[in-house]
Design goal:
6 helices
Length: about 150
């Protein structure tokens, strides 16, 4: 470990800044993970379900739990100044960024036909559904003065 006696004032202050910045990043990861878990729990428990199981809630809980590993590894490795933990943290963050970039590229690629499944199959669910669903469909159509997902 580098001590104050081995370094100049600049390198010690730069190291203190880096440690402080690392703590801030870990706190942000922690808040994001807890927020994802909270949103997932709300979706599973408290949200009203008319259209199906809360799959998105379970995905949010899983993603939040996975992201909870990042600040735990980050805090433990920075507190003990362990190189292996810091490398593991860097690899996790790098993989997270690569997954986000991949999702963005796929979303950009599929952007032009994202509304087609909704337009083609969205209202058939309601037309073939329960009387309550059909009543909701009529209220939406009358309120928007339209006849479905498209504007025609």
């Amino acid at each position: 470990a580098i001590t104050a006696g081995d370094c100049s004032f600049r390198s010690v202050s730069a190291m203190a800044f880096c440690k402080g910045f690392f703590v801030v990043i870990n706190i942000l990861f922690l808040l994001c993970a807890l927020g994802g878990i909270g949103i997932g729990i709300y979706d599973v428990v408290a949200a009203h379900r008319e259209l199906g199981p809360p799959l998105l809630g379970y995905i949010c809980i899983g993603a939040g739990g996975l992201c909870l590993l990042f600040p735990i590894i980050g805090f433990c490795s920075s507190a003990r100044a362990r190189r292996g933990g810091l490398v593991c943290f860097f690899i996790f963050v790098l993989l997270l960024v690569l997954v986000e970039i991949a999702i963005g590229v796929v979303g950009l690629y599929l952007q032009h036909n994202a509304g087609e499944p909704i337009e083609n199959a969205g209202w058939t669910t309601f037309y073939n559904g329960s009387p309550w669903e059909q009543q909701q469909l009529l209220q939406i159509e009358n309120g928007l003065q339209c006849c479905g997902f498209s504007t025609t």
